[in-house]
Design a protein that fits this description.
Shape: globular
Structural class: alpha/beta
Largest sheet: 6 strands, parallel
Number of helices: 8
Radius of gyration: 15 Å
Order of helices and strands: HEHEHEHEHEHEHH
C-alpha cells in the first residue's frame, strides 16, 4: 500500500478489544500496572481485566479518567474462548502464552516471577509476543513503563504488527 491510509482505514486497523490476564493469582499485582500502561497510550479500547480483590480495585483505579472502557472479571472457566475474541491479549508469561499462540491472537507479555522469564524470552525472541518487561514496570523510576507504553501503542494501532505476532506465534 502506498501513501497514508484514509482515516476510516486507520479506525479499522486499530485494536478495539484487549484482555489483560496475569494468571490465577497475579502475585505481584501486574494487572493494575498493565491497565495503567494501556490508559497512558491515550487510545480508546474495550479492556477486560481478570482480577479479584485488591487487584480488581487497583485495576479500576488505573483506568479512571482514561479513554478505556473497562470490564473487570473474576477468573473465567473458558479463558481460551475469551482470548479468541480479542484484538490483543496481554498476559503474564506463564503457560497461557502457548495457548494464545495456538489460538492465533496477537499478544503482549510481561513476566511476573522468575520461572516465567524463560518463556517470556522465548516468545519475544520468536516475534510471537511484544515483550513489555517484568516487575520493574510497576516502579515509577524505571524508564521501562514509557517503553512499554510505546510498544502497546504500536501493537494497538498497527494491524501489521498484530498480524506478524499471530504468524510467528503459530509457527
Amino acid at each position: 500500500h502506498g501513501g497514508k491510509a484514509a482515516r476510516g482505514e486507520d479506525d479499522i486497523a486499530a485494536a478495539r478489544s484487549v484482555l489483560v490476564v496475569m494468571g490465577g493469582t497475579d502475585p505481584v499485582g501486574l494487572a493494575p500496572v498493565v491497565v495503567g500502561l494501556l490508559a497512558r497510550t491515550g487510545l480508546a479500547a474495550q479492556v477486560t481485566a481478570i482480577a479479584i480483590g485488591e487487584n480488581a480495585k487497583r485495576v479500576r483505579a488505573a483506568a479512571t479518567g482514561s479513554c478505556l472502557s473497562l470490564n473487570v472479571l473474576a477468573p473465567v472457566d473458558d479463558l481460551a474462548a475469551m482470548m479468541s475474541e480479542q484484538d490483543l491479549v496481554i498476559s503474564a508469561a506463564g503457560t497461557s502464552v502457548w495457548e494464545v499462540c495456538c489460538i492465533g491472537v496477537p499478544m503482549a507479555v510481561v513476566w511476573a516471577v522468575d520461572n516465567q522469564r524463560e518463556g517470556y524470552d522465548r516468545v519475544v525472541a520468536a516475534g510471537a509476543a511484544v515483550g513489555l518487561g517484568g516487575p520493574e514496570l510497576g516502579r515509577p523510576e524505571a524508564g521501562a513503563a514509557e517503553r512499554a507504553v510505546g510498544l502497546l501503542r504500536s501493537a494497538l494501532t498497527d494491524s501489521q504488527v498484530r498480524a506478524d505476532l499471530v504468524l510467528a506465534g503459530r509457527q
